[in-house]
Amino acid sequence: MYGRTVTERRRWKAEEKLAIIKELKDNGRIVETCRKHSIDPRMYYRWKESYDSFGLDGLKSNHRRMEPGRSKIMKENEKLKRLLAEKELENALLSDALKKRR
Predict the structure, then answer these.
(1) Other residues' Cβ atoms within 10 Å of the Cβ of residue 75
(2) Does any domain span residue 2?
(3) Same structural domain, 46 and 16
(4) What is the CA radius of gyration of the chain?
(5) 78 and 45 together in one domain
(6) What is the DSSP letter of 25?
(7) What is the pTM of this model?
(8) Domain coverage including residue 15
(9) Which residues contact 27 (CB under 8 A, 6 or more apart)?
(10) What is the spatial distance between Cα 12 and Cα 25, in angstroms, rounded to a whole number?
């Protein structure tokens, strides 16, 4: 992990995806064209399937940015769930120990 630079994931616009799909359709050289654009051939096939099914709308990103406060609430919720699970386990162990004493 040390010495590596972290690269951010490339976000493709729908028009860019469409241009790559058309280029591949014209020349038919999937591997070479995918290398040229630094994409995995499987990504091309996903884009093509999505385009064939839904048109240009299928190529648009469905990614939505999370509201700032929501992330904090989700983390707090996970913490509370863990605490509750620990307490329930503790209660079950105490209950079992009490049953064994009787």
Answers:
(1) 10
(2) no
(3) yes
(4) 25
(5) no
(6) H
(7) 0.53
(8) 10-63
(9) 33
(10) 18
